[in-house]
Fold each of these.
Amino acid sequence: MFRKTAFIWILFLGQSVTAQQVTCSPADKQAVENKLIEVDGLLESDFGKTIVGIGKTFIGTPYVAKTLEIGDTETLVVNLRGLDCTTYVENVLAFSLMLEKEKSSFDDFTETLENIRYKDGELEGYASRLHYFSEWIANNEKKGLLKDITAEIGGTEITKDINFMSTHRELYPFLSDDENFEKIRISENYLNDQAICILPQDQIAANEHLIQTGDIIALTTSINGLDITHTGLATREKNGRIHLLHASTGSMEVEVSELPLADYLKKIKSNTGIMVARPIHP
């Protein structure tokens, strides 16, 4: 859909060569700079409202899958013109954190996005990307960016074998490389030793009052080998109900779900519930 004109910045800090490689078209760099202007003035005392205010500026942006699967090596891909559910949440969180910290340059944006997208904030190859969203939540909690509140709102711990990527190697071009494949298997083995907490689908409506605007909602699944199939942001709309603000595979664009979250999930056969993470005010 988009012309993949790309260029790479190499940043130098002091005497050392960094390290940060960014793949971004000129149009996407301009889109970042335009978005920084657009969100200026959306800062609220309630960080969740800041997040949703910024999230709603993306409404109508096309849903595009696999925008990060570019080239032969892992780089920090910047693309605001086509978003999947995860890159939508990542970009909204990045702009929200920047607004709170009064940062406004393109370099600030790429630094913030890298911190969110990669294990311990460091891009070190394909396997350093937080591919499984339960690990995305856990690692960003470790960074102090958010808190997994699922247990606090009635969730229960489960264990599940997480191995979808290694058992579907053919779906991931980067996994044709044996080193990448082995590193992903190591990550999966680590995840298999960790319990995750989920709020079951049939208990969401009763606990909906504990979910706040701006919370990150991750949809858990019965699909073998997977933890999460979709993610978005909680937004309490005028009807008083929590809806999902997300890059939708239904409408193929960023939207607010027509149905409240609890009712929306009932239409997804494989859905088992949700994880909920609350971004932390910087």
Amino acid sequence: MTVLEARNLPRHVAIIMDGNGRWAELQGRPRTAGHRAGSDAVRRIVRLARRLGVEQLTLYAFSEQNWGRPQDEVEALMALLHEFLLSEREEILSNAIHLRAVGSVERLPQPVREVLEPLSQRSAPGARMVLSLALSYGGREEIAAAARTLARKVARGQLSPEDVTEELLAAHIPSVAYGEPDLIIRTGGEFRISNFLLWGSAYAELFFSPTLWPDFAAEDLFQAISAYQRRERRFGLVPSVASNGHGAHANGSSALVETQACPTSPSDS
């Protein structure tokens, strides 16, 4: 049983959901079965994160590079996404979860956008948790898009090059609109971030889990958060300075929560 500090949870958790395909192959099943099992894991972890009090959850669901996969697999992933949005719509709304998408959403099939966009708008007011789906997303692409936006403003004379600061660029990066991730988890045993949240990951804590995404459960998430809570986040500062308002231990709470009391109610490969 993993024990967590009740007041020292990461505010923003991001997950690279890796391992659907390998999970299916190990069972002698088609990759689509792995993606469907991965969709069930999304439901499980979203519910758990909400009950734990995580304020933001960002899930790497479909990368820009995933468009290069076989057409039948892409179509199956889009169908699963459409199904997920329809099936989870009432739960999202009834639990004050703001669902939003980051990435080149205009590339998604129209049936997906017809469900996604109204749900994003309707779920925004009064939200207590933000669920961001990275769809047709790439970290390099996101930064390049922000740079193009600012370049156009400079070309029109609305900005001078000296006005382009780190803060201004960050304001044009949608994935950090609600804050940078505190903890990035990658499942499936790989040790890379695969073009995910490149701007926001600058000072995020990283946790690599061997568990394939369809099997990722409560204890796996608790282990990742527990590892985060044992680290000291310095943000480039010395420990005495970093502890004054920064880092995993900034809240200083010694209150503990037994994770067994928090029941639970697509990928890079």
Amino acid sequence: MKKLILLVLLYTGISISANAASVDTVLTHSASMHKDLKAVVIKPADYRAGKKLPVIYLLHGFSGNYSDWITKVPAIKDLADQYHVLLVCPDGGVAGWYFDSPVNNKSKYETYIADELVHYIDQHYATLADKKFRAITGLSMGGHGALFLAFKHQGIFGAAGSMSGGVDIRQFPDRFGIEEVLGKYSEYPQRWEQNSVVNMLYLLKPNSLAITFDCGYDDMMYASNQKLHEELLDRKIPHDYIVRPGGHTWDYWGNSVAYQVLFFSKYFKQAK
């Protein structure tokens, strides 16, 4: 069996590939936060500059970073090959929650991902630079972030997903660093209400966004995801919702991501 060594590099314009997906680690700049951030970009084996591909943004959870997905679920490289897509894993901070924070100028991850990073990827890679070929998903904090960003930026993302997403941040008024980016719930309840995904469905119209999300039955996020599902049904917003056995674990997310990428691949094919 041939051995493949993938070298992770700062972006130099040179890709390394041996009949399998290749991995770049790129250094991007956020003007909004006045700092540089790394991101992982996974290219399928048949990637070439002249062939434009859809892009799936894959967000990490609380206390994680840009390298979590490729380190803990290396099989996502196979998904890039199988579905001929680019996978982009940004950095959302230890507890950035993918908001533009009103209290911390160094935490503007909404602007960074929905604007600065999307622009960077479309400039440096052969992408189909249209919302119909751009999807976003993530786990836990990143599941919240993916739906939050897609709901607010439907001109950027055409499809969105969530795995075990923290879709109602009001559950955690003193946990997971949310008060560091929004202020204390007791002092700024309106911020928490406005930025909870379950309260943002007014932004959606039927079929304005392709949506898929799932949660393990034993997950602490299960009840809020079930509520999100019911609210979407009440509003007649089409979506895929799956409940599986499992908890808030990488075993669960490593399984879930394959189904989410399949969902997005079908969406991209319909858009062509």
Amino acid sequence: MKSAVIIDDIESARKSLKDDIGHYCSNVEIIGEAEGVVTGAKVIREKNPDIIFLDIQMNDGSGFDLLEILPDLNSNVIFTTASDQYAIKAFKFSAIDYLLKPIDPDDLVKAVEKASKDEDSKEKLGILKENFNSPKKLALNTLEKIHIANIQDIVRCESNVNYTMFYFRDNSKILVTKTLKEYDKLLTPQGFLRPHQSHLINLEFVKEFVKLDGGYIVMKDGGKFLYQQERDLK
């Protein structure tokens, strides 16, 4: 049985989440509630829960303010948020679980299952804080652990069936347990280009574009990639 607290400044939101947890997550016991940063920090110190359901925006501050108060926090955090695209982008780069209000029961169950197994919450929360205004780092899940990568150090990504191989400026590489399509959505707005169905490249590492032979891109590390039309990449 996992213990949990709910921190949200809206009483009806706390009640709704508590009811959903009671109905769909029989392995979770709610041992405390709070309506803000100050009271939330107090209940976390008193209860030391396994999981914290934490609202982002509250009347006396944000969920991040609460985390600053508790730098040695050992609990796993599941954020709850309204539709905030900047926040959601930060969560995805940091591999942090979040629940979008109104909360879907299936998403709740998945988030709880993941939080129950997660051993890298501190590292992920650190990335989230850095990425909240502008993404700088990316959490990469491998079969063994989570790697924290500086986005500017990623040279290119290559599809490997349901996995993705990341290549870095120091010539190291990491096989990550997500598809290239998922990283395409995250990294294209950060200066990356998908010139080919199987490749995603950092434009900072492009050496030249050759128009011959149908067109291909040459990378600074010597890699060459045919340039497909956008319609071929869907």
